[in-house]
Every structure is written in C-alpha cells, then in structure tokens.
Design a protein that fits this description.
Elements lengths: L1 H26 L5 H10 L4 H21 L3 H22 L10 H27 L1
Helix pairs in contact: 1-3, 1-5, 2-3, 3-4, 4-5
Length: 130
C-alpha cells in the first residue's frame, strides 16, 4: 500500500513538472528565458511558435503520464527527451539556464525519479498484484 501511494504521488509530481514547464514557462511565456534557449538552439526566426509547440508537447506529456498508457514507453521517452534537451542546453546555452550548468544535476534527479517510479516502484506493484 505504501509503494502504491508513493507511485501515485510521483506520477502527480512528474506530470506537474511537465504541465508547469509547458503551460506557464513556454505557452504563456511567463519565463522568457525558455524562448531565448529555443532561439539559441533552433534559431530566432521561429523561436516563438517552436516554443509554443514544445510547450504543447510538454502538456501532452503531462496528460500521458497521468493516463499511465504505455507507461514504460512513456518513461523511456521522458528520459530521452530530458537527457537530450539538457545536453543541448549544457553545451549551447548554459548562460541562459537558471542555475547554469548545475541544471544538469536537476535533470539527472528528474530522470532518476522517472526511472525509479516506472522501473522499480511500478514493477514491484505489478509483481505484488500478480
């Protein structure tokens, strides 16, 4: 029962991270630094529409996390996206990151939480219910 509650809390936490970053930081542009990062990496000409598309994709990711549909594929996708995004930012835009290159430590922590939630906790819950 304890693992089940932790699993649910982590699902809410993970989906909230995606929703907040997608909706508030990117779509509503409450954190303009995100658009500046997109402009640095993908170019200025289409940085606003691309930032909105990225934000909408993050909102969709939040819904996907909550839905638990193909949760292993979802976790792998999240891990690859966060790792790729942070490697690009680490190399191409460290000066625009909130904590500079230290941001990569937070990304690694998030990746660890996603991994733990799906491949450790969820596995235990499936084994327990079987």
């Amino acid at each position: 029962m304890k693992n089940n509650n932790l699993h649910k809390v982590l699902i809410l936490l993970i989906s909230t991270v995606w929703l907040l970053n997608g909706l508030f930081c990117k779509v509503l542009n409450l954190v303009p630094r995100h658009e500046q990062i997109v402009a640095r990496i993908l170019g200025r000409d289409y940085s606003r529409p691309l930032t909105i598309l990225i934000g909408l994709s993050e909102i969709i990711m939040a819904v996907w996390v909550i839905s638990k549909f193909k949760s292993k594929l979802n976790a792998i996708t999240q891990i690859l996206i966060v790792a790729t995004m942070n490697i690009l930012e680490f190399i191409l835009a460290p000066d625009l990151l909130l904590w500079g290159r230290i941001n990569s430590m937070f990304a690694l922590l998030f990746i660890g939480i996603v991994y733990y939630n799906e491949f450790v906790l969820n596995k235990k819950l499936i084994q327990y219910s079987a």
